[in-house]
Design a protein that fits this description.
The chain is 67% helix and 5% strand. Residues 48-82 and 84-90 have low confidence and may be disordered. It has two helices and four strands, in the order ββββαα. The protein is mainly alpha-helical and 267 residues long. Among the domains are: 1-61, no CATH class; 121-189. The N and C termini lie far apart (224 Å). Residues 65-81 have a biased composition (Pro residues). Residues 58-86, 171-194 are annotated as: Disordered.
Length: 267
């Protein structure tokens, strides 16, 4: 015979099938409460119901319960057993009306208290809002003044930046001019070094020329002396030639005289 049980969590009524084996727990399909089979067996059995439509989900062994959000098939509708309503003999309506009046009075008191608190909170909120508005106006004025000051400083910065750019341009022009001057100075230094080298070479050449000139002067003096000697020798030669010419003339005259004398001599 199947076991009829109630869930201790939500009161769900269901039937456990036969042949549970070594199962230790079952899970309620309505509230997902894990119930021990020992606890179910220790409870008094409810009245038997001859209805096989009571469903209940039974886990297998030590398997974990289904995760939250997992789809669980809804239980089949179960027809509740007929109950006999007890007959009430007390003044139930009067007690309920008294309880309702007390409840309404308490709720009205709470509403009045809440309304008073809301009014005070609204007043405080209006005061805080006004203070916040005044503070906001002051901050807006300060921000406007700060914006004007910032605009003025930005204008000054723009002016200084323009002046700085002008100075940078002038500095760049000066640097370019300085570079050009340095280039000209380096070229002048190179030329001066070349001139110094050439001057040294010319000095050496001049020294050689002076030495050669001195040697040539000495040679010229020697040549002048030898020319003078040659002039004297030539003059002596001219005199000797004149003497020889005179001697040749005398010899010619003597020869003519001899020839004439020889011709006058009788044969």
């Amino acid at each position: 015979m199947n076991l009829i049980v109630n869930c201790p969590g939500c009161g769900f009524r269901g039937r456990l099938p036969d042949g549970l084996g070594d199962l230790q727990t079952v899970i309620c399909p309505s509230c997902q409460t894990v119930v021990s089979l020992d606890e179910i067996r220790d409870r008094p059995a409810p009245s038997p119901v001859q209805d096989d439509s009571f469903p209940i989900w039974v886990d297998s062994g030590a398997a974990a319960p289904p995760e939250p959000g997992a789809t669980v098939p809804p239980p089949a509708p179960v027809a509740p057993p007929p109950r006999e309503e007890p007959i009430y003999t007390g003044d139930y309506m009067a007690a309920e009306a008294e309880h309702f009046s007390q409840y309404v009075a308490a709720r009205l008191t709470e509403l009045h208290q809440r309304r008073h608190e809301l009014t005070e909170a609204e007043s405080r909120f209006e005061v805080v809002t006004m203070q916040r508005k005044q503070e906001l106006h002051r901050q807006q004025g300060a921000l406007a003044r700060a914006a004007d000051e910032l605009a003025r400083r930005e204008a000054e910065v723009a002016t200084k930046e323009a002046a700085f750019l002008t100075r940078e341009a002038e500095q760049a022009a000066r640097e370019a001019e300085q570079t050009a001057r340095e280039g000209r100075a380096s070229r002048s230094e190179a030329r001066a070094a070349d001139i110094d080298r050439r001057t040294a070479e010319l000095r050496a050449t001049i020294d050689q020329i002076e030495s050669r000139r001195a040697a040539l002067a000495e040679e010229r003096i020697e040549l002048d002396r030898r020319a003078a000697e040659l002039d004297r020798a030539e003059l002596a030669m001219h005199r000797r030639t004149a003497e020889l010419d005179e001697m040749d003339e005398r010899l010619r005259l003597e020869q003519e005289e001899w020839e004439q004398a020889h011709d006058r001599t009788p044969k």
